[in-house]
Amino acid sequence: MDRDSVKRVGIIVITTDKGLCGALNTNLLRMVLAQYKEWQAQGEEIEVCAIGNKGFGFMQRLGAQISSHVVQLGDRPQMEKLIGAVKVMLDGYSSDRFDRLMLAYTRFINTMKQEPAIEQLLPLSGERLGAPETVWDYIYEPEARAVLDQVMTRYIEALIYQAVSENMASEQSARMVAMKSASDNAATLIDEPDADLQQEPAGGDHQGAVGNRRRRGRRLKGTYGTSTRHHRPVHRRGHRHPVRSGQHAGHL
Question: Which of 33, 64, 158, 185 has a CA that sits 20 to 30 A from residue 138's CA?
Fold first, then answer.
């Protein structure tokens, strides 16, 4: 079958295994979903390789055709864990099962900035490879096709490994920023003056005032024993205080 007549696209989607990293996965998956619907509108079929638990779950809910997946990569990417899922997609392109292979991941710019990206992995474009300034005539052993096939396979695997590494770096940066923001917001709530919770609402809204007192009471409950206010124990009417050993009731 001629590759030009194939109406099928392969895409490798790289996401994180865990959450709590802000909108990192959401931004990428939103871009992938828009491209996915555009391909479907053009009558193309899509095969997916999901790297990362978040993308794998999203593609399952979407009902996409998942050819391979790998999850639980850990904090550092390891090529031996990726190679199985990646080889399925490379073999699919080599056997003309789809006409092009795309790569979706989050590109690491700096600590405060990460960008979702969808790039064409195969066929390789001239922009990625570059054009040589001069032409050299090489002698290959074994033949040139066998050597270039091996070199190009390793090159594509290195590109995917780089994308996974950048995605993990983006994950750690986004998680650091998200946790810093959450800590700052929590500190702001803790440092709010109690007077805001005690203030009576205008118009005699006693229900709102009661709610404020209850919220204030819950906050004080967590700091009981460290507050500078004096907390006097409350005793019901008709109950007597216990008599301590060695004392008379009259001394109480």
Answer: 158
pLDDT band at residue 249 under the 50/70/90 scheme: very low
Question: Concatenated DSSP letters for 39-64?
Answer: HHHTT-EEEEEEESHHHHHHHHHHT-
Beta bridge partners of 102: 11, 120
Q: What value does the mean pLDDT of the chain take?
A: 80
Number of H helices, E strands in the chain: 7, 5
Note the pLDDT tens digit of each residue in 120-159.
999 887 666 666 677 777 888 888 888 888 999 999 999 9
pTM of the model: 0.71
Domains and CATH numbers, the chain: 3-126+140-186 (3.40.1380.10)
Asked if 70 contacts 17 with a C-beta cutoff of 8 angstroms, the reply is no
- Reported as half-sphere exposure (CB side, CA atoms, 13 A), residue 15 has a value of 30
Question: 């795309």: which residue's tokens?
Answer: 102
- Helix, strand, or coil (residue 101): strand
Instruction: Report the alpha-carbon distance of residue 6 to residue 246 in Å, rounded.
Output: 98
CA separation for the pair 10, 91 (Å, rounded)? 11
- Would the CA dihedral through 136, 142, 148, 153 be positive or negative? negative
Task: Give the separation between CA 70 and CA 12, rounded to whole angstroms.
Answer: 11
β-bridge pairing 45-51 and 8-14: parallel
Query: If 0-12 CB within 10 Å is exposed, 13-18 middle and 19+ buried, where does residue 104 land?
Result: buried
